[in-house]
Amino acid sequence: MKQLEGKRIFVTGGGGALGRASSLLFSREGAMVSVVDINTEAAEETVRMITAQGGTAVAIIADVSDETQVQRAVGEAVDAFGGLDTLFNNAGIMPHQDKSFLDADLDQWHFISNVNLHSTMLCSKYAVPHIANEGGGAVVNMSSFLAVIGCTYPQDAYAASKGAISSLTRSMAVQLGSKNIRVNALAPGPIMTAHVEQFFPDPEARRIRLERVPLARFGVPEDAAGLACFLASEAASWITGQIIVLDGGISSNYL
Ligand SMILES: NC(=O)c1ccc[n+]([C@@H]2O[C@H](COP(=O)([O-])OP(=O)(O)OC[C@H]3O[C@@H](n4cnc5c(N)ncnc54)[C@H](O)[C@@H]3O)[C@@H](O)[C@H]2O)c1
């Protein structure tokens, strides 16, 4: 039996590294996937990849920080598959200019909060009533290990947005338990994607970071996809309100 047989899943940022790996896994596990992204080409490529592996998916183009667009996107997903069972609030940004609060630019701070945090609230606001209509389901949010530990090289707007997502996750879980909707979050450490690679420009920078990783490697998108799939599935049916760290052990290591 596949883990997500017949489930209808709304994946934000489904054209990106973790969103694509997750969408592909959800599809292999039997789900129908709404691949939601601001980037048309990326969303359509994920849909092509899902179709190529024999799955069913639709590309929905929306800015998930915009309330009108989120409302429309959720409507399109419900129309496409006749309902909604699972929401994966994965879309997020981590601009390189985001450093310390001491020299933060307020417009950029708002932008990061809008895309990371406010989108999580907005997509949940419009998707959860549909999930409740189905008798329950799951919401999976995307936090970060930077919501759990500080960093010598700060990314304060990002870390603050992810900390708020962790808090929102717990509050949503408490409110939605009676509707049989579980709400959990992933909190990944550095996962090697094209974007994260730019933070480690040379082999020495990578070596220094890896010294702190008990499992001695960076994450891969499939690590996040596997946990998101588990949290969305019945195997996690008694888990809610949890922020689950996957970071190769970094946050357990006092170096
Ligand atoms: N890669 C990592 O190391 C890492 C670690 C911890 C958490 N995360 C989180 O995982 C999530 C995915 O990260 P990723 O590494 O796959 O990044 P990514 O840049 O590859 O993917 C993000 C996707 O979100 C989309 N997106 C951005 N703004 C959007 C908006 N306003 N509306 C709709 N879509 C939008 C982008 O177009 C992109 O396809 C993010 O929330 C990120 O913060 C990543």
Report on this structure.
The chain is α/β, with parallel strands linked by helices and 255 residues long. It has a single domain, classed as Rossmann fold. Helix content is 44%, strand content 15%. The protein contains eight helices and seven strands. Strands 3-2-1-4-5-6-7 form a seven-stranded parallel beta sheet, sandwiched between helices. The N and C termini lie far apart (43 Å). 47% of the residues are buried. Bound molecules: nicotinamide-adenine-dinucleotide. Nicotinamide-adenine-dinucleotide binds next to α1 and α6. Nicotinamide-adenine-dinucleotide (NAD) binds next to α1 and α6.
The count of β-strands is: 7
Q: In angstroms, what separates the terminal alpha carbons?
A: 43 Å
Which segments are poorly predicted (pLDDT under 50) over 5 or more consecutive residues? none
Shape: globular
CATH topology: Rossmann fold
CATH architecture: 3-Layer(aba) Sandwich
What strand order characterises the main sheet? Answer: 3-2-1-4-5-6-7
Given helix and strand content, the structural type is alpha/beta
Please give the domain count.
1
Average pLDDT metric: 97
Rg calculated over all Cα atoms: 17 Å
Q: Strand fraction band?
A: 15-25%
Largest sheet: 7 strands, parallel
How do the helices and strands follow one another from N- to C-terminus?
EHEHEHEHEHEHHHE
Q: Regarding CATH, which class? A: Alpha Beta
Estimated helix fraction: 40-55%
CATH superfamily: NAD(P)-binding Rossmann-like Domain
> Helical segment tally?
8
Family: Belongs to the short-chain dehydrogenases/reductases (SDR) family.
InterPro entries: NAD(P)-bd_dom_sf, SDR_fam
Keywords: Oxidoreductase
Pfam families: adh_short_C2 (PF13561)
